[in-house]
Structure formats: C-alpha cells, structure tokens
Amino acid sequence: MTARDREELLNDRYGDQPKPKQMIWNDHVERLLAHRSVRNFLSEPLPEGALETLVAAAQSASASSNLHQWSVVAVSDPEIKAQLAELSYSGSVGSKATYINEAPVVLLWVADTSRNHEISTNGGGSTEVYDYLDAFLMASIDTALAAQNAATAAESIGLGVCFLGVMRNQSAKVAELIGLPKYAYVTFGMCIGIPDPVRPSGVRPRPRQDVVLHHNSYNSERPTGWLEDYEKAFLQFRELLGMKQKTWAGSVRFATTMPYMDGRENLRDAVEERGYLLR
Amino acid sequence: MTARDREELLNDRYGDQPKPKQMIWNDHVERLLAHRSVRNFLSEPLPEGALETLVAAAQSASASSNLHQWSVVAVSDPEIKAQLAELSYSGSVGSKATYINEAPVVLLWVADTSRNHEISTNGGGSTEVYDYLDAFLMASIDTALAAQNAATAAESIGLGVCFLGVMRNQSAKVAELIGLPKYAYVTFGMCIGIPDPVRPSGVRPRPRQDVVLHHNSYNSERPTGWLEDYEKAFLQFRELLGMKQKTWAGSVRFATTMPYMDGRENLRDAVEERGYLLR
Q1: Are strands B213-215 and B184-193 parallel, antiparallel or unpaired?
Q2: Which residues of chain A are within 8 Å of residue B55 when distances are taken between CB atoms?
Q3: From the CA atom positions of chain A, what is the Rg in Å?
Q4: Going along B172-256, which residue ranges are E strands?
Q5: Could you tell me if B255 lies within 8 Å of chain A, comparing CB atoms?
Q6: According to CATH, what is the number of the domain A36-201+247-273?
Q7: What is the pLDDT, as a whole number, of residue A98?
Q8: Separation in Å, CA A146 to CA A58, A131, A264, B14, B144
Q9: Is A44 an 8 Å CB contact of chain B?
Q10: Concatenated DSSP letters of B102-149
Q11: A148-185 residues labelled b (16+ CB within 10 A) or e (exposed)
Q12: Mean pLDDT across the stretch B193-216?
C-alpha cells in the first residue's frame, strides 16, 4: 500500500477530524483499518476451507483461564436462515435483517459454558459460579474475542462480514431454533460471504482518538468540539452513500429509547431461562 | 512462511488432535494462529506511534449501531500499575498479577456508555435502555471486539499482550482508581509491551474444531473422545513449558467453584453502582 492509500484509510476512518499523528503501518494494520460491514453478498458458497480457517483463527484468540467457553453454529440451510431473518425483528421499529438470507453462511456465536458445566457436574463438583454475572460476562467476552478474530481472518481471504446484534432481539426463540442446551446463549450472529462488488459498502467514520483514549486516568471532560467534528464526518459518510440525512446525536438519542430494543428488553429473562442467574 | 511452518502452527494449536483438513493460508491467518499470551516484558516503553496504531485498529472494529460505546485508559504510571497489580487479587486463591508492573503499558478497556448517556440526557431524552441487561452487554461486546483488534495490531508490530480478566475481581476499586464516571466499567485489562525473548511463552492448545463448530443446529452430543484427546494436548503443553502437571478437567472443575471468582462474585453490585441495573 502506498503512503497515499494509507492516508486514504485514515481519511475514511476519521474524515476531517484530527488524525493519529504517528502510525506504525504494515499489512495487518492496513487490513484492520480497512474494515467495513458487508450486507450485500454474491450467492456463491464460501470457498473450501474458509470455515475451518475462521474457526482456527477464532480458537487462537485469548480464552479466559483457558476455559474454551464458546461455540459457533454455522447456518447455511436456507430455511433456517429465513427463520433467523424473521427472528431479527419483533415488530417495534426498524425492519427485518433480510440480508441474512443473502449471506451464504450465518455464524451464530454462542457463549457456551454447557461443556464445562457437564464436566463439573459429572465430576460431582460445584457449578455455583454460573449463578453469577461474571461467569455469563466472561463467556460473552471470550465469544466476542473469538468472533473478531474470525472476522479478521474472513476479510483477509476476501470475504465480508456483518455482525448481527439483532440475534438477541428474540433470544429465547433463536436458542430454541438451533437446539441450544442450557448454559449457552447466542451472543450475536455474523453474516458472511463474498461481497457483491456492484453493491459496495462504506467505511464508517469513528470519533477522533482523544475521545476514546485516556492516559492513566479517565478524563470526563470531553475534547472541545468533538461532537460537532464527528457530526461532520458522519454527515459526509451518509452523503457519500446516498443515505437519508440525520445527526449522529439523533441516532444516539433514539438508541437510548425503548423502541430501539425491539425485544432485547427480554434478554434478561431469556438468559435466566438458559441457566444464568446473573447474581 | 513455509508449509512446514504452517504445519507447526497447527501442531502448536491442536497438538495430536485431529486438525482442520483444509486451511486458506495468508500472512494474516498465520499471524492470528501464532497468538500466545505474553506476561514477560522488556522494560522498554512502547515504540512511538504504537498506541495510536492500536487505537485506530480498535476503532475499526464493528460497533453496534455505530454507537461507539467503549473507551480505553492507557496506564503507564508505575504507581497506578502497582495499584492495579494489588487490585488483581482479593486474597482467596491464586496470586497477584505482578506482571502488570513489568508491562510498560496496561490498557484498561472500558465499556463506556457515559458519552451517549450525556448526549441523551442533554437532549432531554430517555435513557431507559441502560436499565436493561442488553445495553450493558452490548457495550461489553463492542469493547471486546475493539480490544481484540488492538491485540492483533499489537502483535503485528512486534508487541505481546495478555488479557486481564482479573481487572473485574475488585471492579469497584478499579473504577474508582481511574476516576470512571457512571455508566462505564472496566470490562478487562490488557498488558502490553515488548516480549522478553529470554522468557518466552507458549501457544496454548485448543480443543479440536468439531468440539466448537456446529452445522445448522447445535449438536449436544460431544465428539467421541474429545476430552481425552484434549487432555493429552494440554499435558504436552504443560510438560513443554515445565509447568506443574494437572488435568484440564481439573482446572475446569476448579473454575466452577467460588474460590476461583476471587471477588468477581461482587461484579453485579459493582456494575449496578455504576448505573447498570441489568433488568
């Protein structure tokens, strides 16, 4: 990649906001910075070996106490995908994630302590930790670390991905659909496939680094003008993609209202049903 | 990398267990598979630009609804690091993570909805979603996705990392130490630095892929002999590194008892105090 290409990557990511003054560039960093979510796929299946490659990358992520607390269900059956698309939306606002049908494979990333629960139970041991929030959170975090590695591996072999938080909107039904045992829940999904070159997606801008990066302690005074600067970058991105104009702050305000949740307000009940008491 | 090197990567990751039959290799996949946690560091500071590079990579990860719900506090002050090392252990079992002091920088990854809470509050809007489990979980997941990208970027520029789940053992005190506002909590930490070549670490083996990978629905019947096979790989790894012999199932059984939690049983109270009601 040329210096100009790298500058372009930073322009895509930060727009006209202040950019990192010094970067250490290599192929890996370039690849990570070039990420964009993909929702438009060709109908071709995944290349041979792709799934194994993604899972090997996922398994190579750090694992809390080496406990291996996740699983992944690769859904390629069109009927199950159609049901997942239905379950992506409960009807309050937004719309169904119909691009789930377009993706040749949907990965359902499962925080999965059922294996270890079995091991402890079979050994006559305690399983009390699963009553606590931390056990649920730890498995969820490990699932996310694994999934992000899979996403990076996927993009490196020419695939595109899109995370599906909406797989928690009707969490109980998604778990039932794929036959999850207790002590396991779908943390999120991921569409995966070959990006359709005629319907490309864009790189979404992020706030400038000093909004998220703090030194030695948290600085509650936000950088002057950060929100206005970010709104400009956000607007430019939407213009470029021909999207309806709105402010980022407006979308934040919407995301803190109940209609945004579209069923996710029932997640607590759903995971308790799965065995996690979240004490 | 030669075919032999790649074979070696799979041998490190899976030992004598069945290995993925077909992989799609490239530099990125090799880099991901070569991950190992590093706890022994040189005393040198991070190279110029390293932190900016890691944060740019982290910001490039997918973000739920483009909400930017994390922050990262880079701790390089030796006194604060010493306090974090103290707070890594409440005294039940295990020991302090003294390697925190060795790392030139400890990153504290913060699930941070405080910015958006301010935006909604200032706009006179609702903030009810923060009363629900999903809002807490979503921010935690996004934090993990970002952190994993930072880890990948770090390793690509010759640094080593180690995740610190123990930063949740005394969650309330860690939050206080770095002056976190409400609606923010430290999800985990990450040691980062130049690995000490005279005290290298090993690649931890994982269970064979068919233990974690399912097709179209979850198969509750585990692959025959998977645990015995994994125990062999686990034992070999520990022998190679001159570690005390124990079984993996034994460590799982320990990790499901209360002494393992070492303070993390109080996480629920700590995050409620931070504003997350987890309804």
Answers
A1: unpaired
A2: 20, 209, 212-213
A3: 20
A4: 184-193, 213-215
A5: yes
A6: 3.40.109.10
A7: 86
A8: 4, 24, 23, 16, 9
A9: no
A10: HSSEEEEEEEE-HHHHHHHHHTT---GGGGSHHHHHHHHHHHHHHHHH
A11: bbbbbbbbbbebbbbbbbbbbbbbbebbebbebbebbb
A12: 97
Cα B65 from chain centroid (whole Å): 23
Q: For residues A141 and B224, what is the distance between their CA atoms, to the nearest angstrom?
A: 28
Chain A hits for B53, Cβ within 8 Å: 20, 23-25, 29
Nearest CB to B29 within list A53, A74, A119:
A53
Residue A88 near residue A173, CB atoms below 8 Å: no
- How confident is the prediction for chain B on average, in pLDDT? 96
Quick check: B129 and A261 in contact, CB under 8 A?
yes
Buried b (16+ CB within 10 A) or exposed e, B175-209: bebbebbebbbbbbbbbbbbbbeeeeeebbbbbbb
The pLDDT tens digits of the residues spanning B5-58 come to 999 999 999 999 999 999 999 999 999 999 999 999 999 999 999 999 999 999
In the stretch 121-160 of chain A, residues with CB closer than 8 A to chain B read 123, 125-130, 132-134, 137-138, 140-141, 144-145, 147-149, 151-153, 156-157
Question: pLDDT tens digits, residue range B130-154?
Answer: 999 999 999 999 999 999 999 999 9
Q: What pLDDT is stored for residue B23 in this prediction?
A: 98
Spell out the domain ranges in chain B.
36-201+247-273
Low-confidence ranges of chain A (pLDDT < 50): none
The SS3 assignment for B7 reads helix
Q: Which of A169, A171, A152 is nearest to A161 (CA)?
A: A152
What whole-number distance in Å separates Cα of residue A130 and Cα of residue A278? 8
The answer to whether B68 and A212 are in contact (CB under 8 A) is yes
Q: What are the phi and psi torsion angles at A239 (to 5°)?
A: -60, -50
> Is the Cβ–Cβ distance between A36 and A203 less than 8 Å?
yes
Residue B151 main-chain phi, psi, to 5 deg: -65, -45
The pLDDT score that the predictor gives to residue B182 is 98
